[in-house]
Amino acid sequence: MSRTLSVISLIPALCLGLSTLLLRGQEFTPNFDESKVPAYTLPNPLLCLDGTRVSGSTQWFEKRRPEIMGLFQEQVYGKSPGKPGKATYASLDSSLALEGTAIRKQVELTLQQGGKEITIGLLLYLPSGRSGPVPAFLGLNFGGNHSICSDPGIILNTNWMRPNEKNGIVNNQATEASRGSASSRWDIPAILGRGYALATAYYGDIDPDFDDGFRNGVHPLFYKAGQIKPAADEWGSIGAWAWGLSRILDYLETDSQIDARRVIVMGHSRLGKTALWAGAQDERFAMVVSNNSGCGGATLSMRCFGETVGAINTSFPHWFCANFRQYNEHEERLPVDQHMLLALIAPRPVYVASAEEDRWADPRGEYLSLKGAEPVYRLLGAEGLAGEEMPAVDQPLNGRLGYHIRSGGHAVTPYDWKQYLAWADLYLPKR
Ligand code: GCU
Predict the structure, then answer these.
(1) Residue 191 burial (CB < 10 Å; 0-12/13-18/19+)?
(2) What is the three-class DSSP state of 329?
């Protein structure tokens, strides 16, 4: 496996359909050819490090699962801290919205630790006219809460944003023009219409998505005296975003309008990686949805198809823990692969969605990852995938392990939401 890599995001070039990229003078050619996938042997999720075979659920939960969790914490995402010293919640808004179909709530979560604090702006839409707590989808957003819907009542986020003039981000700041810029990704009428609430927050409130050596965002709240960046086995940005999702769930547990035992954590792309890691670590999440999460998310790293460990660690050095870099161009040395991340969620339902044109995220690898997690579900007496083969495009497999590959590209579409809602209706634990 000899692949050379270089810095700079590969995405723009890939969007232009280029297959070989010259970056800072070095060449990285992602492999999109199934026949060139290297031979690999996935670590067995049911074989302990000492060679013991897991034969029952107690052994899984007491021995093998903690072992796998430890490996992901030390080698992939880094270890995250627990709850902050203090969390306070301020209600900023509770009004009827979206032509009376929703109750909009905005809550400011202030998290304090070590004399420092961050604030997370949470937006909730609840279906109006319901009595009693409702289940909810919880997902972070890329462009501020105001980007998910053109509702003028949503507070405009003033934190740093990645540049995107098309979406109304100017000088790293959101403008009024960015309202609703991501509305196609959030099918709010469908979600509310089926009786679910939607909870969302801007991921940059937790940790701005750029490599500044971990001076900004939540990391410094937890530094020990003299520490200036996370240790090699401590959390990167994905770990921080996932931690933020758990802190939002802490809040949801206090909100009497939400059924916090029935919260489905979901995310797209880098935030799909985040949703999986949050769902794996925090067993309070009832179900997990990964939308086009790709490398470092649902897909198998050892296939080296599309984005590789070296490519992701080079383009986004702040996402994973520093230890993960030792697997750049050496995926075969990984002690875990991403099927074991999905297995950590077992027996809770998990849905992985791919898109046909999103080859960078390796759709087949995402499906095979679910397949690789299936033995753990079966061991725990749960159903796995609703089929033996990777399904055709637009033919969802609606099992406890759900999967579809949608026609089209890297996005979240109403089609995706339709599948998630049908699946949630089937597998969400009953009250
Ligand atoms: C890039 C990156 C992916 C990531 C995606 C996103 O394409 O290489 O790993 O999933 O950005 O988050 O949009």
Answers:
(1) buried
(2) coil
The domain 74-427 having CATH identifier 3.40.50.1820: the answer here is yes
Q: Which of 302, 236, 303 is nearest to 274 (CA)?
A: 236
Catalytic sites, residue numbers = 269, 410
- Residue 97: φ, ψ to 5°: -145, 180
pLDDT digits (tens, 9 = 90+) for 63-99: 999 999 999 999 999 999 999 999 999 999 999 999 9
Query: Which of 6, 18, 167, 307 is the pocket-test mutation for ligand 1 (most atoms within 8 Å of CB)?
Result: 307
Ligand 1 environment, Cβ below 6 A:
11, 269-270, 294-295, 307, 312, 315, 360
The candidate with the shortest Cα–Cα distance to 323, out of 214, 250, 233, 210, is 233
Pocket test for ligand 1, best of 10, 269, 357 (most atoms within 8 A of CB): 269
Query: Residue ranges per domain, the chain?
Result: 74-427
pLDDT beneath 50: ranges in the chain: 1-18, 22-25
What is the distance between the alpha carbons of residues 110 and 119, in angstroms, rounded to a whole number?
4
| CA-proximal residue: ligand 1, atom 8 (nearest) | 312
- At 287-301, the pLDDT tens digits run 999 999 999 999 999
Q: Which residue's CA is minimally distant from atom 13 of ligand 1?
A: 269
